[in-house]
Amino acid sequence: MSNDNLIETQDLSVGFPVGGKIFNKSVLMAVNEVSLSIPRGSFFGVVGESGSGKTTFGRALLNAAPITGGSAHYDDGEVSYDLGKLAGADLKEYRRRAQLIFQDPYAALSPRMTVRDIIAEPLEVMGLCNSREEVDERVREIASLCRLNLEHLRRFPHAFSGGQRQRISIARALVSKPRFVVADESVAALDVSIQADILNLLKSLQDEMGLTYLFISHDLSVVAHTCDHVAVMYLGQIMESAPTRQLFQSPRHPYTKALFSAIPSLDPDDRGKAQKLEGEIPSPTNRPSGCQFHTRCPFATDLCKREEPHLETCEAGHAVSCHRWRELQLAG
Amino acid sequence: MSLIDVENLTLQFKTDEGLITAVDNVSFSLAPGEVMGLVGESGSGKSVTAKSLMKLNPGNAVYAPESRITLHLDSGPVDVLALQRPRDMEVVRGGAISMIFQEPMASFAPAMTIGSQMVEQLLIHTDMSKKQARELSIEMLDRVGISDAPTRFGQYAFEMSGGMRQRAMIAMALSTKPKLLIADEPTTALDVTIQAQVIDLMKDLVDEFGMGIIFITHDLGVVAQTADKVAVMYLGKMIEQGPVREVIRNPYHPYTQGLIDALPQLDDLDKPLMPVPGDIPSPLERPEGCVFHTRCSKIVGDVCRTIVPGWSDTGENHRTACHLCDQGQTA
Amino acid sequence: MSAKTSTKIDDQKAKEAYFTASQRQLIWARFKKQRAAMIAATVLVVLILSGLFAPFLSPYDPTVAGRDKDYLNGAPQIPKFCDKNGCSIRPFLHTVTRERSLATNFRWVEKINEDERRYMQFFVSGDSYKLFGFIPGNIHLFGMDQGYVHLFGTDSAGKDIFSRTLHAVWTSLQVGTLGVVISFVLALIIGGVAGYYGGAIDSVIQMITDAVRTVPSIPLFMAIAAFIPPEWSAETRFFVITLILGLVGWPTLARRVRTHLLTERNQEYVLAAQLCGAPAGHVIRRHLLPSFTSYIIVDLVISFPYVVLSETALSFIGLGLKDPVNSLGVMLQNVTKADVLLNYHWYFIPVLFFIALVMAFVFVGDGLRDAADPYSETRK
Does the structure's ipTM exceed the value 0.85? Predict the structure, then answer.
């Protein structure tokens, strides 16, 4: 394991039992053999459509979804854990070091607690502070970092708008001074004019607190602007993973390319030029054979239908899972 | 001649906390075959505006007396707000105007097949026979790109995927040949690849059917790809309107500029994201003067805090309600 | 100008108060806005208080011990302040003599002697009682210097219907409270286990719940009534009836508890707490229980009238409490006789109390339910 990766996964799989408890029992593989490395201090993006398993992947790294296959390691230089085997004091310590920012700023805050109590909850649960004064001190510190009005700490969440709530939610996640933060669609529910504000806040907090983010999103343009490195997921698998700029300038996988061209351009004259994907994402209970993407891929061959491709490195830091990446000219 | 004219539409909701102004003196008109994008963030009143075209707002909605919505049909003009009885409304609702929603699952009755709902609607609004209605429904499903339409006709909404449901919704909305289609965030709940498919479909359908469309969205990219003209709303007020190229390339109002700057764009990854500062005020505390002044970075002076700006021409068919215009300044 | 700023400051204060209002305060503020519910709440409080202090408020013992044997099936007597002999500050009644003979077709005929006044007195000592079951006393709010006063008339045994009604309200409230508490405790345990653990345990418990729900109540009651030995005292009967009502009533409540728990358990803020490593105890204490209490109180208030109703229905069809006990059901049963319908209309007065009680509970419950969700859209 190299020393500058915070998270490394090797063939990580997460499966959920579906169907009846006794009959029709089957396993839904939400995440299927994912191998990724998240470098320390990076803003790592995972993009995919709904049903791609990106949320489950994030939850698995937080020990909130069962790891059913493969392994995941965490190493922040001070401590290192095998995430599949966390328990007891190690799990407790890992909870402090890894936190989650939710998508919906309305559901993630208990309506029955004041903002102060919400932000203070992790401190109290983890027993990180010895006195109430200390808790208050930490709460005020993180609240001002998240640009919350300190006079509002006595208020209840119902007094706040979406953007403010999301800042409270961030303050709550960061109050235990974590190293690793999973931001799951954290701006998807916000208005455009607020979205940029939250993204900038996440960025500035990263610099100040030395955080590593796993930023999960369905929105490629948001990911393009915030992340250093992006992994594209489809049906629980990584299709392509590359440094942001490289991915956007020279995508290698037809799916990545299709995702780009699907984003509606702001230029009104740029209408309908792009190549669009046909069909829809198949159900994870009914996976296609061979390459998971072949049912929608315009370049699919017989080989794609038969054989599953593996993630291959095509350039430094750029990996792609496609049989035909060498021949296809997708850039431009 | 225009298809629909909205003049001085003002709408308030009676609530426990008092009167909440949802739409404030909004005027626009739409020609047949024209696609208008209605852009705004949450609470901007864009959905309420569109719903009032069909008088669909809940019972606690109060329309100001000077509000006027005129729908020009072949049979003559209809004063929508004057319609009282449900029978009279039928001309408008589902007849001349159809609507599609963000969440198509909620718009289909769960216990009826897609087909029987389409047929039922056709029987109400046209004088087709049941057989004709069935044939037309299947034809429409086929037309919106649903493969194996006769089978899908007999299915329930929950048996379809999100994109498929939205297609069925569009088929159903268009089967009565409406003059005006209101699309309320029709692609927001969909994945990007599906969104692209639905946008393409809607563009084709406009060319084919020639109805007017009001496309409500918060996504300027979607508007740029679909609309002929754009109206931007903020806190119930229309602040800028004009042809889509004009408004997106030369936005005049600081809010429109802010929206465009806040949008992450793929062609320049180094461009920093510029949020519009501050939060959207609660509808209970509408700012006086220009509604946007609490977040505006280009305040001219006290006039912004006290006087509601009127419309000024800022280009060909391009109007903006901002005090900057009176100053003769270029933004 | 200063007036304007001061209203602005007041405004700001009001807003801050709203923003810092807890869920309970918001519910109360919303509840206060509903007129019907507020009126019902007042009625309910008055009824509960009058039930609670029934021994003190009622002039006589509601059992045979306090009967007026000279005034059987007597009409209500309304104290007056004036008669042809002038007025008095102290309310009074006239002396009444009753007679039954061949001439009157064997019906009681009253003769009012307008010259003889009987005065009303307050805080008189009379029949001894035990307030709340243990505080002994014999002071009653009002009484007469001589003879009896029957505001709501008397029944066939000469018992004062006013006294009986107040005691009956108290009995019915007791049955309701006890029944609700029993079913609530059962519901909380059973629904709580089902909702918190979920999975197979939940499925099994749901099966049992559904099985209990399918038991038809009336035949069950009839069977039990047949089973209760006739020699049991009124108190034992009362206790058994309440127990049965509680045992039959839990499934509905258990289902709601389970649903609350299941939805609440999957809330993101619960996950957020769990991701901090919060133990189950913390999640239950800080998140699940508080989220619950307001809803549970609402549920309790709403299910209360059903228990009262079932008790009344049981007693009404003769399977529940029997005449010497005062419950609203027993009072209602007395109304069914043809004689009463024709001649003794005052027997219906307790029915009004019964209706008022049930309606008050229903309206308060509805009001609480509407108020309990401060985040719902404003309804018309």
Answer: no
